[in-house]
Amino acid sequence: MAIIGKLVKAGLDITSILTSAEESPQHSQEKQLRELLEQAKETAFGKYYGFAEILKADDPVSAFRREVPIFNYEQMHAQWWCRQEKLADITWPGKPDFFARSSGTTGKSSKRIPITEEFLGSMKSVGTSMINSLHDFDFPETLFESEILMLSSSASLEHNEQGFEEGEISGINVSNFPDWYDIFYRPGKDIAAISDWDERVNAIAEQAPEWNIGAIAGIPSWVLLMLKRIIERHQLQTIHDIWPNFQVYASGGVAFETYREDFEALCQKPITILDTYLASEGFIAYTSRPETMAMKLALHHGYFFEFIPFDHRGVNERGELLSEPMVLGIEEVELEQEYALVLSSCAGAWRYVIGDVIRFESLAPPQIKITGRTKFFLNVVGSQLSEEKMDTAILELAERMGKTINEYMVSALKNEAGDYIHQWVLVTDLESKGLAGQLDELLKSANKNYAVARTKALKGIDVKVISKAQYTAFLAQTNQKGGQTKTPKVMKPEKMRSLLDFIS
């Protein structure tokens, strides 16, 4: 494998030279929109909204915004995607071979997102761009001689009676890997196809000594559990005792920082953390520079992006889109401003609100950070707590107490007196005594809106503590264990009450 490592590294160096000059973000995005409209102009959606005429306009971007409304998932599915499950040429040419069941955290049931051949190609293209960017990190050749372990959802897909297969997006991607991927991909398709999470991780732990893992990709909470299972199974001190070349972890799905300390505890050597924005709706962004975990937007890969300011110009006090929100293009965004992301793609998503809130960390190139979900800003009584602000408070609390807190859940509930409180559940081995007061203090100092709410309608907070074992048992009970599962940090009241009932 040594010669392969040398060749791959040399190839990345050459690719970096050839692709050093990119076209402007605005020009690239206009080009992407034209290509999408051209490909879909003969579909039912394209004919209904006049894609052919939009393409003739002097300013097709403005014409596109005038003619095509903004859709959320419920609207897109009810009006268009439900028909695409049965018929061809609805929102994209042909009939999708796959539908992705979203493993995200919104809604009462899984979304079903169409996955087209072009869409799978776009995700591979973004992945290739991410690999090419590794040139700037100056990794040693040993990384490119080793294997990558992808902890995905099950690659065993379900056959739908309408003629397509469905599963989570990571499982669909793995099931479509060409056979030559077996040279470097682990755990391999056979283990990846095991449906039961614990059985799959046990199989990974059993095979682990036979692999030379240099990179791992997956959601932090489940990767941590897998690494601990391997260490326990083989009675190791750290994961580097079995995989000495492990040096890159590609995180995704949730914010990484609350997991950093626990990852470091399992490693003997420093590892490079890359962030990825890989959703059922697309491979949207990835870390491309060594000095930051901000993610470069995939502007050249079959996606057209729009941005709605996540303030009074775009949303109401509950974080819901206004009937006529301000919509901006890539050339109009500003640093440090939060935006709800809108996507049009080669999967047949059109002006589709994904539900994520992002912030631009740089404009040249456009690099972003996910700050939360549109539906999960805790703002029932004007507290205006974003996921990012809550993460920061939890990290500070953990540092004060000398412990780690990976996961947490919070909800606005009414107490017996009819007053609102914030109910927190922390996954940690801390004692709960005194945590509520300290967390309350940290949130007040971090967010003036929260401090004001605490003097008015928000009468207090309550903190309960559960172990990691209790947390995973709760997920197992609700069929949410493993793979790409993400538990919402801001829970709806009924979900929180079910968790409290489970704890008690």
UniProtKB/TrEMBL annotation:
InterPro entries according to UniProt: GH3, GH3_C, GH3_M
Pfam families for this protein: GH3 (PF03321), GH3_C (PF23572), GH3_M (PF23571)
Domain GH3 middle, first and last residues per copy: 299-373
Domain of life: Bacteria
Residue ranges of every copy of the GH3 C-terminal domain listed in the record: 391-493
PANTHER family with a match to the protein in the record: GH3 DOMAIN-CONTAINING PROTEIN
UniProt protein name: GH3 auxin-responsive promoter family protein
